[in-house]
Amino acid sequence: MKSLKYIVLVASLLMFAGCNDKAPANDAAKTSTQTNKSTGVASLQLWENSTLNKIVQRGELRVGMEPGYMPFEMKDKKGNIIGFDVDMANKMAKDMGVKLKIIPTAWDGIIAGLITEKYDIIMSGMTITQQRNLKINFANPYIVVGQTILMNKKHENKYKSAKDLDKKGLVIATKLGVTGEIATRKFFKNAKIITFESESDAVSEVLSGNADAMVYDQPYNVTFMAGKGGEKLVHLDTPLTYEPLGWAIRKGDPDFLNWLNNFLRQAQDDKVEDFAAKTYQKWLVDKSWLKRVQ
Fold it and tell me: What is the overall mean pLDDT for the chain?
């Protein structure tokens, strides 16, 4: 009798243990299901709040740019904004199936305008820097440039580099608040540095002889030499810096960033349409567009 009671007791304990073993498994499955649902809801909310979704729903891509940076964005004689970035923006809007709206913006407020949602993206020849990247995100670089020097031709036989120009009594001009100013202050410790609100004002000082040289982006300097600067300036074209240019968007938007990087890859690698190569040739190699702006 004692043996029978013992067997019954052991069986009861095993059944109880079995019930306890199933409980955690059921709880784990329930928790996993809840987590998957929560993840799905969060992903849906992320997409609904994405700039890309808002652009599609609005039917309009709003692009912030400062139209004064040849050959990326500038105004032609009729007041139309044209350039490398403009063609890219038009292609981007077309691939999204929406209209394009360009919002001209002063450079000193262009990042603030993006953060406060005045436009969806900055496409304005902006150099990717770690300091800017603390405030905004960048898509992959679409082109790499550097800072070069436009020098008054009276110095042609005296100075051959930034080091040669770094002398007391000489004046170096640049644009305020851009990477050109950072490079100028890094490379020139003895020459006087003066800054201007626009690159056209800075280069005008060199043309007039009020400044000896200007530090600014290589594409702009090459373009300027092909036009007004050819007879009065010398281009010291060895880049002082490495500067990748990228499109800027607000932080916390992986869907928009993913779309932009895929768009760029397609534009650069699709050799059937060859859009990126043709756009580069049109604005950075062929200078026939100069007739439209000068």
Answer: 88
